[in-house]
Task: structure prediction
Amino acid sequence: MEKPRKTFIGLVDKAIAAANSMRPDELLFSYKGILYPTTVCSPETFKALESFEARRDDVILAGYPKSGTNWLSQILTDLIAISQKKTPGSESGVNAEEEEEPYLEIGDAEKYERMTKLPSPRLMVTHLRPENLPKSIFQNKAKMLLLIRNPKDVATSYYHFSNGLALLPSYETWDDFFTDFMTKKMAWGCYLEYLSEWNKYADKENIMTITYEEVKENPALSVKNIATFFGIPLTEEQLQLVVERSSFQSMKKNSDKTHGSFGNIFFRKGGVSDWKNLFNEDQSKRMDKAFEEHIAGTKLGKKLKYDLYCKA
Ligand SMILES: Nc1ncnc2c1ncn2[C@@H]1O[C@H](COP(=O)(O)OS(=O)(=O)O)[C@@H](OP(=O)(O)O)[C@H]1O
Result:
């Protein structure tokens, strides 16, 4: 039985009510040159975040919007519960729903003060680029899981999400969205720039990179590798439980409890290659060229297996 994420559901409810009374051009604001949703982020929170004190045993998940952060966050929540000898899903684990919204940059400026009282290990999720994260995360060597997904599916997922949730500007056509996606007009910035910024950190020993596609391809091996990286021993039975609970079908089924009425928006298709239903040939070539210019030859670029997932 899944516990409702009351903080999250309450936050989104409030944000949607606020967004409904805003003009489309008010939905995003710019902070240090990057756009963010006005209803869930604020300059005050960003300012407060700068002096956030990370702990060495914090568990941090970094991923651009729509790269599968809700999915990996569920896997990490269960792994942490197991490390604390709790049964996943049945007891309040890390960041118990009533306690704190795990998305680091989302919420009020006082949340970091409240987070000082949370027991270790704290789970945090972020869509931020590394240069906008608090310095203490890197100084204190907190372990991070960096989640990346092929850019054509990220764009596709982001398009449907933008039109499904009032917090983000909606688009009349996919073509309009694609133009904005390629010209840095997205909340949390340009994905290809995100990848090249994170690539500068890809060799750090406290950062493990994983792709959406590899978790999809072999969930058991991925969960095992993540658990090993965070130093969490797992029995075969526990491994199977985490894999089963994090399957797209299970998460979608539980989504009315975990994500309220927005469940269907957060858990849409959960697959690979849906981009083929939206991209035309010209758009596909434009993305191929931009990928080549920004990231193709780098460590993260190679890890994405672009030719396999983004060509033909
Ligand atoms: N369990 C599981 N398995 C496979 N795929 C999953 C799973 N859970 C979520 N998803 C898919 O991840 C996409 C949403 O990404 P995020 O969770 O990062 O979105 S958000 O930015 O935090 O709103 C979104 O992708 P699309 O379906 O392609 O839109 C979700 O459906």
User: Anything to note?
Assistant: The chain is about 45% helix and 10% strand. The radius of gyration is 19 Å.
